[in-house]
């Protein structure tokens, strides 16, 4: 049985996401990072290496923000300011991401409480290894989203 795609978008619709879950939604990780950025944005994220995430953004709609160690691109909507996802591009050109379920109102997570996650004590190497092991393969395409 195939798990249906989950579709969401930022507040204004300039960025659309399609998550193809690799397992039932109830089994996907659901986390609340405890860093200042995520707390201020009320972020609740999911990622899964067996899933796939498509991010479609209208041309010029994505603001790539980097903070702290500057190792990840935080994807914000340039128009409405919503925190959509965080992503990294690997040396081979592939992309991994963690999706802010709360920011794009992704269905299927209603009634769940995200698990607090604190990554403050990780080294850069540990952080990259965790992302490679847990984050979702993703694409980021600039095209007019069809919401």
UniProtKB/TrEMBL annotation:
Q: Which positions, given as ranges, span the membrane?
A: none
Pfam families noted in UniProt: GFA (PF04828)
* Nucleus found in the keyword field: no
Q: Which PROSITE patterns match?
A: CENP_V_GFA
Q: Which SUPFAM superfamilies match?
A: Mss4-like
Query: Per the database entry, which stretches of residues form a coiled coil?
Result: none
What's in the keyword line of the UniProt record? Metal-binding, Zinc
Q: Which GO terms describe its molecular function?
A: carbon-sulfur lyase activity; metal ion binding
Instruction: Say if the entry is tagged with keyword rRNA-binding.
Output: no
Q: Which residues form the CENP-V/GFA domain?
A: 6-120
The record's comment on protein family reads:
Belongs to the Gfa family.
Protein's name according to its UniProt entry: Aldehyde-activating protein
What is the taxonomic lineage of the source species? Bacteria, Pseudomonadati, Pseudomonadota, Alphaproteobacteria, Caulobacterales
């Amino acid at each position: 049985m195939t798990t249906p795609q989950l579709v969401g978008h930022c507040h204004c619709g300039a960025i659309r996401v399609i998550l193809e879950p690799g397992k039932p939604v109830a089994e996907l990780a659901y986390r609340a990072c405890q860093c200042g950025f995520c707390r201020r944005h009320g972020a609740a994220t999911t990622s899964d290496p067996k899933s796939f995430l498509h991010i479609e953004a209208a041309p010029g709609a994505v603001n790539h923000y980097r903070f702290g160690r500057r190792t990840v691109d935080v994807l914000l909507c340039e128009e409405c300011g919503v925190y959509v996802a965080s992503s990294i591009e690997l040396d081979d050109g592939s992309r991994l991401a963690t999706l802010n379920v709360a920011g794009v109102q992704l269905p299927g997570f209603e009634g769940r409480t995200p698990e607090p996650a604190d990554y403050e004590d990780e080294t850069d190497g540990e952080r990259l290894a965790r992302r490679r092991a847990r984050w979702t393969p993703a694409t980021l395409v600039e095209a007019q989203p069809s919401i």
